[in-house]
Predict the structure.
Amino acid sequence: MTSPRAAAAAVPLSDVVAIVVVVLFGVLPFPDELFRTRGLLVVVALLPVVVIPWRRRRPLVALGVSLACTVVVALAGTLSPSALVAVVITAFAVTDRTRRTVGIACVGSAALVVFLVAAVPLDGELFDSRAMQFVTFVVLAGALGDATRSRREALAAVTERAERAEQDRDEEARRRVVEERVRIARDLHDVVAHQISVISLSAGVASSSLETRPDRAREALTTIRSASRTVLADIGGLMALLRAEGDGERQDLHPQAGLDQLDALVARFADVGLHVDLRRAPGAVALSPASDHVAYLALQEGLTNAHKHGAGDRAVVELRHRDGVLALTVTSPLRAVDAAVPTSGHGLRGLRERVASVRGRVETSRADGEFRLDIAVPAERAAVTAASGSRR
């Protein structure tokens, strides 16, 4: 059960004040006989106190009841201040709690009714100052209610925009976190996958050649040692980059590899037993640093897949350029038991994402017992034009 103190606390203070004001205007002994209500008219004049607490949820009903009480008392020959004050209070609620057009129409109608019925106790005098002050109060209350509603709506709109902006910031932060996680995963794959593949294949060679060809086993172990050092150094560089808080901690990191290191890449694969037939078209195409690095990583991924899944320990790499696009192709024969080599995976997925980041495309296909990886990387148009002009 609700205690009396809790019930009293549940009644808004503004309702208490409004009811007290209406009651006071109904019982005060006004010197002017025109404002004094007697007998049953007192009950009618005080009836609006019943609906005043409902003025927020049912503002039109509250205004209608207050206006009706005002009309009844006025037709009996008295201007009831309490009923008129109730009309003023409920007029404020109407424009504050309803649509603007509805509120303005209702308050205007209420002011007109007060203006007309006040002429009855005033013997037909429409513009008597005593009646006009109440009409003015009704209009003013409606204007204040409309201003309050407009301020509340403006504040709600500002709050909504602020919440939407904060939500957008949170979504942007989450998106950046996801993008950064994907980028780190790609970098980790680029750093580790190639060298681990070399270590795994070299370990197999060393294991099978340990007794029959010790020299071959020693070469494989040397390759494993070199690849292990490389991958440890690369992981250390990646960790240093992730932990860096300023540019000063990044000074010892190596620049990103590009196609100018393609010969060294081919040589490393040759050291682990993959013979690469490198075919370059004449001429050159200028790439941005990002596109150059992506092209290098694409070839590294393609040769790693050829080493892992290919047959015959050979691969063909072709570099061509046309219409401002550098086309890279890696072709390698497939083993008969590995004809279903996957054309997707973490490596190829990361490769597609990297190439897409520079507006390139990646295509994989299998035909005539060969696996083919085609990469197209756009060049810098201004650099291509300058290179074409210098050749002319």
Summary: Confidence is low (pLDDT under 50) at residues 248-253, 382-392. The radius of gyration is 44 Å. The first helix runs from residue 4 to 10. Residues 18 and 51 are 11 Å apart (CA to CA).
